[in-house]
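Our consortium's second objective concerns turning raw sequence data into structural hypotheses that experimental partners can test. To show how far this objective has progressed, the report includes one record in full. It was chosen at random from the queue rather than selected for favorable results. The single chain below, 481 residues long, was entered without modification.
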Amino acid sequence: MAASIMHLPNCMIWPSFLHLTRQISRQHNIRLGKHPLGKRFLCTQHTLSQASKEPSRTSSVPPPRKMPTRYYGQPAPHTHPHLLQNKEVTYGVSRLEYSHRRQRFVSEMIQRAARKHENVSRHIVLIPSAVQQYMTHDIPYVFRQNTDFWYLCGFLEPDSVLLIEATKSKNITTLFVPPRNASRELWDGPRAGTDGAVELTGVDQAYSIDEFEKYLQAYLKGSRNFGIWYDYVTPANPTVHGSVIRKFITQERQAFVEQCKPLIQKLRVIKSPAEIELLRRAGQIASESMMETMKFSYPQVDEHFLWAKMEYECKIRGANYLAYPPVVAGGNRANTIHYINNNQLIQDNDLVLMDAGCELFGYNSDLTRTWPVSGSFTHPQRLLYEAVLEVQTMCVNMCSPGVSLDCLYQEMCLMTGDKLKQLGILPSDLSGNDLLKAMYPYCPHHLSHYLGMDIHDCSDIPRSIALAPGMVITVEPGSNA
């Protein structure tokens, strides 16, 4: 807002409003006209040294091209230099990293096919984007991309399809995107079009989505005994599925149809250094914002006010929006795991539980904290709070390669059970399986989940597998995991 004010004619700058802007800027240490993320906190070019040593199954990354000067349907280095560095597709993630993601996906796909379908040497991958959702008639919700599609190409417009044709020796990546349309762009904003999609993402080629069906028909005419990789069980784009893809996968010229999601999630669960920096920054923003929100707590405060304060603090620090509808629950309402009404007054001597996080260019944070609305714990509240805090610290210290989330959950239940015995809440003679059974009503949720581009990231990856370097998880004993 401050940057926009500075470009208005002088007669439009109200002195009182400008004074308020300066006051807010001083309070939050923000310079007028400067993006809240400030100096870029990562550079992704050095993070791919290990990946670049892998044998290439793809065509080389296209050489740099001159970017068109027009706007696209998403930020680009030439339109948003305060956000994107040269050769980045999305904030903090380069064309090279997206290319390596596709390369690793194809490599996993080829290996899996060799084990199950050894006589199949050609493959076609179909990954649609998400569909624009509407509140009512022509009033859209904020668009959020299908994260599997986003992970592999970084293109952020709806009604698109990523298509990969792969063999053991090479692959060709094609994007099908909404065509340029002056009438629609007047209402919805600019579109990248086919030329912009190639220039921004570095894919091999792009066509209008209107040509998608014709392209698949031509592929069928020249192909037999090929593999199709497509998530047909829960299509990301029901419109494209019903009008085009369902017909393609039922022609019976293919050798098999397999789901993409298990292979993509196997890659997504291990984060790159660039992804870890984005997640770290998202966590830092949410942490700072929640601590600031705590300062505005007082008896009879409305839960909705604390929600609004949290969202405001996240956004002025550079977050795009909250990662999910937050839980802001006073008193006994905190026992409703996904309480999101957030419409009651919090009484004196009550605790308030906040479960909230923010999204930063596709990567999310997820924090849960509890504090006394009055600023001071009662004695029983402090005893219980410190017991849970100690359990959380022990759980964090247990997070290491080889340990599973299920193992952490079981240990958390036993440790919390011991604390509750000490506080006289559970019988002192409980132990082992009896203690676990007694604890389940207190912890009907899990301790942890994977975190990344989705809040409950990689939901098909079981919590029974061993943790590995590069995984990012939450640790939330006694809360809303």
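The partners drew two points from this record. The first strand starts at residue 88 and ends at 90. The mean pLDDT is 88. Both points have been shared with the crystallography group to help prioritize constructs.
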